[in-house]
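Revision sheet: structure tokens.
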Amino acid sequence: MRPFLLYRDGEGDQEIVDLADVPERLTIGRSTTNAIALAWDAEVSRVHASIERMGDEWTFVDDDLSHNGSFISGERVRGRKRLSNGDTIVVGRTVLVFRSPTEREAMRTATSRERATPVVTNAQRRVLVALCRPYADSSFAAPASNRQIAEELTLGIETIKTHMKALFDAFALGDIPQHHKRAAVAQHALATGVVSQRDLESQ
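Predicted:
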């Protein structure tokens, strides 16, 4: 199957980049000259990183071009890292998901337990939807605070904190800076369809 990248643009619309159409290399950055231009994300460097083909594999490269760093599945990238199906790439406040499904994976249903779609409990999903709620009107919104989530779900703050920690683990955020984790979870959930626009509009 053809490998691709999945992310949300500045308007909150889903974008898909078919890597089969990319000769060897594409750059990611805030400048509009990049193949993937994230002009709306102030935490992304002008030229932040690149994705490069090596034979039949795809790699992510951050050779200290970025100011705030790049993270793949929770680990900071220094140099080159081979991409695997389902890897979550965080640059600035933007989350991109790398997909390179095999024939067998492509035939799975939406309920399959793939690494790109973390498995969460019903209670955790309710917290996740509440976390993403502010994005219903704007992709520039900040995710809901623990207090806002607690008020919406009529739960205690400590209960919300417990669920948030479980979500950080489920989304494999690892070394991503703490102040970026909430946005990374929310954007990954929206980019991969774990939380839909319909979810955000219903309460």
